[in-house]
Amino acid sequence: MPPTTRERTLRAQGRATRCRLLLAGRKVFASHGFHAARVDDIAAAAKTSHGTFYLYFANKEDLFRALATEAMDEMETLGDRLGPITADDDGRAALRRWVSDFVDIYATHGKVILAWADREFADRDLGRRGNESLATLSTAIADRIAEARGGGSTAADGVACLSMLERFNYFQQSRQIRFDRATAIDTLTRAMFDGFFRPT
Amino acid sequence: MPPTTRERTLRAQGRATRCRLLLAGRKVFASHGFHAARVDDIAAAAKTSHGTFYLYFANKEDLFRALATEAMDEMETLGDRLGPITADDDGRAALRRWVSDFVDIYATHGKVILAWADREFADRDLGRRGNESLATLSTAIADRIAEARGGGSTAADGVACLSMLERFNYFQQSRQIRFDRATAIDTLTRAMFDGFFRPT
Amino acid sequence: MPPTTRERTLRAQGRATRCRLLLAGRKVFASHGFHAARVDDIAAAAKTSHGTFYLYFANKEDLFRALATEAMDEMETLGDRLGPITADDDGRAALRRWVSDFVDIYATHGKVILAWADREFADRDLGRRGNESLATLSTAIADRIAEARGGGSTAADGVACLSMLERFNYFQQSRQIRFDRATAIDTLTRAMFDGFFRPT
Amino acid sequence: MPPTTRERTLRAQGRATRCRLLLAGRKVFASHGFHAARVDDIAAAAKTSHGTFYLYFANKEDLFRALATEAMDEMETLGDRLGPITADDDGRAALRRWVSDFVDIYATHGKVILAWADREFADRDLGRRGNESLATLSTAIADRIAEARGGGSTAADGVACLSMLERFNYFQQSRQIRFDRATAIDTLTRAMFDGFFRPT
DNA sequence: GATGAATGAGATTTCATTCAT
DNA sequence: TATGAATGAAATCTCATTCAT
């Protein structure tokens, strides 16, 4: 049995190839989804060969897991970065900066998270991890909402808010809608602020 | 000229089988997505053989198209059903009823619409139709928002609002979150009302 | 087990249907060959249904056998009809009449004989019968050649002569060449006469 | 973009495999015809797997096309090789050599050309190319006939002559007749000479 | 390290044939 | 007698993965 990545020490060239494969994987999973993405496509996108892929990843799922983990880590950091949102213009400005971060991170990792839909039934572990990731982020949002609005706020608000962010960015990424960046950020910020953070 | 569906005259039994296949397709596409759904799965779920499947549909895509069209039709009717939302309790109640309708329709057809993500690259026509469907619904929402809030409302608001509804219901359907029906409807109604329909 | 044709006594309607199927079979086998011809095609061409076919023939091969037998019978009669060919104008005229008969019979049955190519490996019995048929006809020709030309004539001459007739007519039928009837008959008559029947 | 033949760079081993597949294809198409030939048969005959087959050819038709093209090229060269046939013994000898070439080439490629009958409806391009091929050869023959016999010779003579050659060799190949090589060549040469090239 | 070659499990699709109405 | 419904064996083709160079 040939040694997989983990066990090998990679030199510079090797690291470069692995990196190209990760980038390629992100691109291909993003545009095709997990099932439709063929190892061949990924290898081609990384300008390397079929066989080389298996030098760096045990299988297609292994690469996916690496990308998904990376994506989830990034997503979770977003929760930490969301500070208290006050009901005034400062709060609104802080929220806007955070939404802007969300948009950037989604642009890079969002589609991988999506490709999940395919996976979640096949790989329970990854699915659980994904749910935790989602929960972590939505809980962070829910906490800030509770803080800002006082009573009457629930976990469901966090999820609803995150839903809006996620799907709006998805539609944007998949070119089903094409608003310019500023409009997108403004719209989401306002809707979040009015809909969740402003006390009734 | 193969003996496919189109030209055949169906008797009662035939119509029943076709119907079972449609139901089964909805179920299987919903839980597996388009790519992972095997024709055999669908046939089995319809308690018939795969050979029979091809008596009623030219291929997997053909069945999918039928389901997607049905789903889009339903979704589009939602736009028509959304009347003016006033800023008072009546408006809030009307909105709640509409959200409740959305939840019901999504429970039946939502996942098929999702399974689209896989498809949209393969079948341009269906993709276009899907975008139109999305646009129709989000425009209907945007119009009501403009009506209620006056100036400063944009198409992007319609999309943001629809995004929240769609994804929240998706998470709910896929069991990634499990709020009870009333909580879900209340949360969405409030967030929509405060976030989009209540004048600032 | 349902009773096949043989055992059933057919009334007028039944005989008509069977006849339509035979005609349709000839047409479809001719244009598609045995393998590519689908029972559905034949049934459709006979303006009847799928299931009806099996009321009159045990299977696809059964129908083919019926047609092939008919074709072989016809072909064999051609041998009997070829009288002595003298070296003069009377012989030439007699030959021309016979060639003309050949062309007519080939127009009706030739393609079925061809569809054989597909079959001959699958159905040894039919293949043998076909070879006999071929041998009967080529021998009849060879005999007349020997008669006309005296010594130095062989069985191979009969085959060569039949080959020319068969393939020329095939090309004509399949529209790969399109000479008018008179030209075709004249050319074949002359070539047969000069090439086989005229003493050196 | 599937990893089909076209874009791949073949090494020695790959070229050898491709070659084995071509040979195997010739054999299997020859004995079964296009429709009845299964890809598995061809792969087995080439001592490889069907998966490998698709590494070198897009599908069964692709392989067939390659073989047919090769066959047509060979057949067309025969036209060029037929020099003037004089009415004397030299002409007869030259003709005999050419017939001998025809027999050899037919032994290798003839059956593939036949397997065409199945195809010609499915692949119009190949069909057209085949007709051209047929026309090229029969025209070359017709030209030599005109040269030798003066007036009164037509295109139909070329076709009749080619018909005889083709079908006689076919019967021989398919073991429906079994004359020895010399007899076959002698018979065909004499019939061609007397029937087409000798002035009346 | 890299890559072409090979494999075979599994998915789709066709169609001859049987069955029930 | 006629015909729609159902079936499953068999064929095509794809692609993740292993292997040899």
Account of the 3D structure:
- The structure is a homotetramer of 200-residue chains.
- The first copy, chain A, is an all-alpha fold and 200 residues long.
- The first copy, chain A, folds into two domains: 1-58, Arc Repressor Mutant, subunit A; 65-197, Tetracycline Repressor, domain 2.
- Chain A is built from eight helices and no strands.
- Chain A has helices at 12-36, 39-45, 50-56, 60-81, 89-119, 124-149, 155-173, 181-197.
- In chain A, α1 (12-36) crosses α5.
- The longest helix of chain A is centred in the middle third of the chain and has 31 residues, at 89-119.
- Chain A starts with 11 loop residues before the first helix and ends with a helix.
- The mean pLDDT of chain A is 89.
- The interface between A and B is large, with 44 and 44 residues.
- Chain D binds a DNA duplex (21 and 21 nucleotides) through α1 and α3.
List the helices and strands and how they pair.
4 copies of one chain form a homotetramer.
Chain A: H1 12-36, H2 39-45, H3 50-56, H4 60-81, H5 89-119, H6 124-149, H7 155-173, H8 181-197
Helix pairs in contact in A: 1-2, 1-4, 1-5, 4-5, 4-6, 5-7, 5-8, 6-7, 7-8
Chain D binds a DNA duplex (21 and 21 nucleotides) through residues 2-3, 8-11, 13-14, 17, 38-40, 48-55, 59-60.
Contiguous low-pLDDT stretches of chain A (5 residues minimum) are: none
Largest sheet of chain A: none
- Tally of separate helices of chain A: 8
Characterize the overall form of chain A. elongated
Helical residues, percent of chain A? over 70%
Q: Which short descriptors sum up this protein?
A:
Arc Repressor Mutant, subunit A, mainly alpha, DNA-binding, 8 helices, homotetramer, Tetracycline Repressor, domain 2, 200 residues, elongated, 2 domains
